[in-house]
Amino acid sequence: MSRMPIKDFDHSNGHGRRQPGLMPTGRQGNLIVTSTNTVPDSELRKKFIDEIKKQGKPYGLYFDDIQGGFTLTGRATPQAFQVLPVMVYRVYADGRPDELVRGVDIVGTPLLSLNNIMVTGDTMQVFNGICGAESGQIPVAAAAPAMLFSEIEVQKRRRGTERPPILLLHPSTLRQLLQTRSRVRRHSANHENERQADGVSLGSVSLDGGVDRTVLCQARCGAEESGE
């Protein structure tokens, strides 16, 4: 609670927080989740697979990392939350290797989801992030062990799930490619007639000259720049 007057409270509890320039409200600072029903993390995976088999499902979902989430807490909206994972795996009951999954978000209502926790691990993990609300953007932290849920609701993410590039170009290689493209565009108008005479098409491979268009232009541009 903040320092704003509230019935039956005559002083602040120190949780009034705000972004500079906004009115303070009661906000999260550090959230620490503890459990009285824990098992070693190595045993938690075994219990996970046992539960998958017990429910007769082909696989369960393992959420390895998240980037944040949000909740709806107003009286005019449903009391619901959404968590945005970044690393999700299918864990198969038949022993197949874990499979990476894309575009999965966790959704649900707090009370129902918390009641589905079966057991937790014994190692605390820390999450640091920024929380946004009516008093602005403020830093928050949460610490909790891994949790095994008997059931949790998920939904497909709204944005696309196109695969990113497998390999990224080294900055020096990218710079060379951009320089080459710039030279090709600069000299393309001057060499159009010459390219046609040599049988070079407008594509990347010649029709009857047997020479790549880009390489051909590179050689000629290089010769002109060196004065040959």
Q: How can the largest sheet be summarized? A: 5 strands, antiparallel
Low-confidence runs (pLDDT<50, min 5 residues)?
A: 199-228
- Number of H- or I-type helical stretches: 5
Alpha carbon gap, first and last residue: 79 Å
Domain tally: 2
Rounded average pLDDT: 79
Radius of gyration: 29 Å
Order of helices and strands: EEEHEEEEHEEEHHH
| Count of distinct strands | 10
Inertia-based shape = flat
Q: What proportion of the residues is helical, as a percent range?
A: 25-40%
The helix/strand class is alpha+beta
Throw out a few tags for this protein.
228 residues, alpha+beta, five-stranded antiparallel β-sheet, 5 helices, flat
Please provide a brief summary of the model.
The protein has five helices and ten strands; from the N terminus they run E-E-E-H-E-E-E-E-H-E-E-E-H-H-H.
